[in-house]
Amino acid sequence: MSDDIPGRRTVDVVAFGIVTSAILLFTATGSVIGPDIVRALMGQSPGPDQFVLNAFLLNIAIIIFGWSRYRELNAELAVRTREEAAARRLAETDPLTGFLNRRSFGMRADVMIAKARESGRAVALMMIDLDNFKQVNDFNGHAAGDQLLRQCAARIREVVPIGSAIARIGGDEFAIAIEYAPAQSGHVDRLAEILLRQLARTMRVGGTTADITGSLGLASTARSHRAAEPADAQVLLEYADVAMYHAKHQGRNSFSWFEPQMAEELHLRTELEDKIRRGIPAGEFVPYYERQMDLGTGRLCGFEMLARWQSPDLGLVSPDIFIPIAEDIGAIAELSEELIRQALQDAKGWPRELTLSVNISPLQLRDPWFAQKLLKLLVESSFPAERLEIEITESCLHQNVGQVRSLLTSLKNQGIKVSLDDFGTGFSSLAQLRSLPFDHMKIDRSFIERIDTDMDAATIVRGIAMMGEGLHLPITAEGIANVHVLNELRKLGPVKGQGHYFGAPRPACDLGDWISAGTAPRGGSVSATPAGLERTPRTLDLETTTSNESRRSGRV
């Protein structure tokens, strides 16, 4: 970037003109007075005219002072020019990365688009959003977040072609404009793949490491976007932004080209986000309960609380839809706390031997005040801590084991039980299981559902049961769907179980017959036929709005 400011002189012309005039006058007077001085020195004349001599001397003084002033003015002008150039750079660039900012990127991209159209070429705009950047920033502080952004910027700069425009247009969002030949769009795809690989490489942040990925959206002047007028930079940036969110919702660490239907999907998702935010304080999210049974005695042990959204506009919305969205928009903690508050009030009326199990989002485990918030809810409801069990998924153990251990220890000290949920789907080590204070271990439904038909699944379940026995961790099997699965599980010894075989989840007002039957005299057996497979209410199915990485059964 040049330091020259358009319309600004780089030298002081007036001062230069005065000095030049003084030099010319000096030359003229010197040519007149010079011969007289020479003859006077030789004794041939009385000397130069006094008036002309004074003018000559004055002219010398003007040259000396004028030149000095000329240099001072030019030095001052150079400083001011550099300051104005620096101010312009600050106004046009991001101070952290040195990239363009949103405003200057739009202007630069518009120029690139205009030139590309004249030459028959095309311009592609990329939008990159860093996945999980907020968590890294929250865990390690803003200084570490800035360091991470600078490393990402350096990696982007390494692979983007010379002549492209690069900008940081948001906290962790980058935009790139690239000119290319329309017949070579495959080159843009390959560049997108390279960028994602670059960003996915482990980065060093302070004294630790950080693993992040990127979601990338693409839009191009060479593609049809249902627009009557040719797309400018602002429009293409909006298209690329929509495509980027599509890539993020499809599992992250991927890229997508903009397609017109994506805008409709984004509109629907935005509408759902707004409804979720308004639905939480309105009490539209309600707890449902799934029975947990002792498979040996047939007795009811407790209930697991599951989330349901009874929307006045959409009906009963599938948790596979609203839970990932609530996590993305940062509403999962508030949603979970409201559901737990309701569940604790419901459970107060149950027999004292029945426990309440609730699922905790990975995002809540990152909250250093979560234990205090949960204890506050227990105090408000006067619910005994020893009857509450929280469930955390195995994937949570790989994010910050030290923080998880501290949190679980704090909860255990208050009498709350802790269960490891979905065991078998992650990569927990025996050392982690021994070091963390778990009370129970739940085998993931993906194994339980196939235990009667898949020998490998049956072997895995038996192995987990034996490991639980060795670690003194009682086992709960989730996803029991039929009597054949039930009979296989009974062979494993003392095991608790839950699933639709024992009835679909119900709201609190419909638990009366379950509780009455479940507290029958000891020695009863589990029914040989499914108990109360209720018809599920109408459920909204919006597959396109759901993240592929977040398939749950309504657990919060």
Outline the secondary-structure elements:
Layout: H1 13-41, H2 50-92, H3 102-119, E1 122-131, H4 133-140, H5 142-159, E2 165-168, E3 173-180, H6 185-200, E4 203-205, E5 208-210, E6 213-220, H7 233-249, E7 255-257, H8 260-279, E8 285-294, E9 300-311, E10 315-317, H9 319-328, H10 332-347, E11 355-359, H11 362-365, H12 370-381, E12 388-393, H13 401-413, E13 417-423, H14 430-435, E14 440-443, H15 445-448, H16 455-470, E15 475-478, H17 483-490, E16 495-498, E17 506-507, H18 512-518, E18 539-540
Parallel strand pairs: 6-7, 9-11, 10-18, 11-12, 12-13, 13-14, 14-15, 15-16
Antiparallel strand pairs: 1-3, 1-6, 2-3, 4-5, 8-9, 8-16, 8-17, 9-10
Helix pairs in contact: 1-2, 4-5, 5-6, 7-8, 10-12
Index terms:
EAL domain-containing protein, 48% helix, elongated, transmembrane helix, 556 residues, transmembrane, 5-stranded mixed beta sheet, Rev_trsase/Diguanyl_cyclase, 18 strands, disordered N terminus, 8-stranded mixed barrel, Nucleotide_cyclase, alpha/beta
**Count, helices:** 18
**How many runs of DSSP E, i.e. beta strands?**
18
Query: Would you tell me the overall average pLDDT?
Result: 80
Q: How much is the radius of gyration in Å? A: 37 Å
Strand content: 15-25%
Overall shape: it is elongated
Main beta sheet: strand number and arrangement?
8 strands, mixed, barrel
Classification by helices and strands: alpha/beta
Largest beta sheet: what is the strand line-up?
8-9-11-12-13-14-15-16
The proportion of residues forming helix, as a percent range, comes to: 40-55%
Rounded to the nearest angstrom, the distance between the terminal CA atoms is 52 Å
Unreliable stretches (pLDDT < 50, length at least 5) are 1-8, 519-553
